[in-house]
Amino acid sequence: MQAELTDFLAMWKAKGYAEASQAYLAPDVQATSSDDVPVLASGRVVTVRPDQWTSADLFVVYVDFDLTFSGNSGAWGTGTNSRFVTAASRTGSIPYVLDLATGP
């Protein structure tokens, strides 16, 4: 899971949040290119802790990110950002579709 979150941050930094969200996030939380989205200057996953386990196909982890932005950070903030991440399995090269939330 940590590797997938790290890959999400790398794509966000390299290609923008809209493209990263369309590759990694659940459809209802994806951004479009016309959305006003923050520009990630740097980001890393600090910790990933189990929260709720349903199965290997569906689980929730609590993640601390360390993020820096160019300009407005929107709902995110520079520094530590904590999110509950729901992971649901899928087929393809990215094993999970993710849903990031500030609450469980």
What does this 3D model show about the protein?
This protein has about 100 residues and is of the alpha+beta class. Helix content is about 20%, strand content about 45%. The chain has 2 helices and 4 strands, in the order ααββββ. A 4-stranded antiparallel β-sheet has the order 1-2-3-4, with helices on one face. A hairpin with a 6-residue loop joins β3 and β4. α1 runs antiparallel to α2 (about 15-25). The longest helix has 14 residues, at about 1-15. The radius of gyration is 13 Å and the shape is globular.
**Strands ordered across the widest β-sheet:** 1-2-3-4
Which bin fits the share of residues in helices?
10-25%
Class by helix and strand content? alpha+beta
Rg value: 13 Å
Give, in order, the helices and strands. HHEEEE
Number of strands: 4
Arithmetic mean of pLDDT: 94
* Low-pLDDT residue intervals, each spanning 5 or more residues: none
Biggest sheet layout? 4 strands, antiparallel
Strand content: over 45%
N/C terminus separation: 18 Å
Question: Gist?
Answer:
The protein is an alpha+beta fold and 104 residues long.
What labels describe this entry?
alpha+beta; 104 residues; 4-stranded antiparallel β-sheet; 45% strand
Write the layout of secondary structure elements.
Layout: H1 2-15, H2 17-24, E1 39-55, E2 58-70, E3 79-89, E4 96-101
Antiparallel strand pairs: 1-2, 2-3, 3-4
